[in-house]
Amino acid sequence: MTTQLIIIALLIGLAAGMLSGLVGVGGGIIMVPALVFFMNYTQHQAQGTSLAVLTLPVVIIATLHYYYECQKAGTPIDLKIVGLLCGGFVIGAFFGSKLALRIDQDTLKKIFAVILFYTAFKMLGWDSMIVKWVKGIF
């Protein structure tokens, strides 16, 4: 492994970790595109690497921090919901990975991009702005 490759991987991990701790995202949003663009990974390879990174040891520190801080604030994290989400996530990730490996890379990149765009569109509130604009026309 070259020094440049090590530095790039560390920077991608740092950016993904910072974003993950800040807003609860990082693997898919930062790591996958960064691995594709900066390290020339295939879409499948980047998605698999991102999933491999998102294992328990990586997120446990941030999770514990949120858990204790939410407890102090009187808004505890419901561990029953966490368990249910984990169960669904494990099953969904398994079948999602099987499906992803059957889709060609270009189509998978487009699906990924549409999901990111749609998420950004909704979170910025642009969907309601467009609806108001269209209603104003008619």
Characterise this structure:
The chain is globular. The longest helix has 22 residues, at 79-100. It has helices spanning 3-23, 27-39, 43-53, 56-73, 79-100, 105-123, 126-137. The mean pLDDT is 87. The chain is mainly α and 138 residues long. Helix 1 runs antiparallel to helix 2 (27-39). It contains seven helices and no strands. It has a domain at 1-54. The chain is 84% helix and 0% strand.
Layout of helices and strands:
Elements (H helix, E strand, L loop, with lengths): L2 H21 L3 H13 L3 H11 L2 H18 L5 H22 L4 H19 L2 H12 L1
Count of helical regions: 7
Compute the average pLDDT: 87
- Listing every helix as H and every strand as E from the N terminus to the C terminus, the arrangement reads HHHHHHH
Poorly predicted spans: none
Largest sheet: none
Strands, count: 0
Estimated share of beta-strand residues: under 5%
Helix share bin: over 70%
**C-alpha Rg, in Å?**
18 Å
- What is the CA-CA span between the terminal residues? 61 Å
Structural class: mainly alpha
Shape field: globular
Provide a brief overview of the structure.
The chain is an all-alpha fold. It is 84% helix and 0% strand.
Keywords:
single chain; mainly alpha; 138 residues
